[in-house]
Amino acid sequence: MGVSTLEKMVLRVIQTIEPVLCSQLVKRVKMNKQIQAGNTFSNYPHALYATDVKFQTTYRPTGRFTEQKVYFSAKHNLYGFKIECSVAPPGVVVDVSDHAPGSRSDLTMMFDWLSIDRQMLKKEDDSVPELGGEPSQFSQMWGVLVDKGYQGAGRILRTIQPQKQPRGGTLDHEDIARNKAISADRFLSRISSAV
Fold first, then answer.
1. What is the average pLDDT across 181-193?
2. What does the H/E/C string look like for the chain?
């Protein structure tokens, strides 16, 4: 059996079992159920889930350089694919994107799945109280914890993200403490996407 035949067979098996695995392992959650079960983020209870991108390295693709460079991630200095995974406490995967080439940015991947994020983060029940501070914008939406790679997503979604260090400057103690709190809550998504 040649390598290409084996690859084709493995790909067919994965394509066959993927819908079954997704239906069993990926579950949409609602904030009222999360609150009732006590499954909210400790520092940001108004965040429904955390989103992160996982980079999976691959061998350098064959073909022309222009075809290869699409899979090259300058951040990782490797060739590969990315998937975006959203995880709610206590480790429930709520959404997984299709794979994308390694050169695609985290923000672009979020924009590709924007309609799904808006649907899942929409507040459907006014009886569920706002946990944490009242939002200045996007009051009809729950928050999503993201990393620094999602700069700009706050214009279209209610994101909770760490403060970037200003060029040539430093962060103050409040920003450092806030970044640590966000990182502590996001730790769950990094563990789940690594698995």
1. 73
2. CCHHHHHHHHHHHHHHHHHHHHHHHECCCCHHHHHHCCCCCCCCCCEEEEEEEEEEECCCCCCCHHHHHHHEECCCCEEEEEEEEEEECCCEEEEECCCEECCCCHHHHHHHCHHHHHHHHECCCCCCCCCCCCCCCCCCECEEECCHHHCCHHHCCCEECCCCCCCCCCCCHHHHHHHHHHHHHHHHHHHHHHC
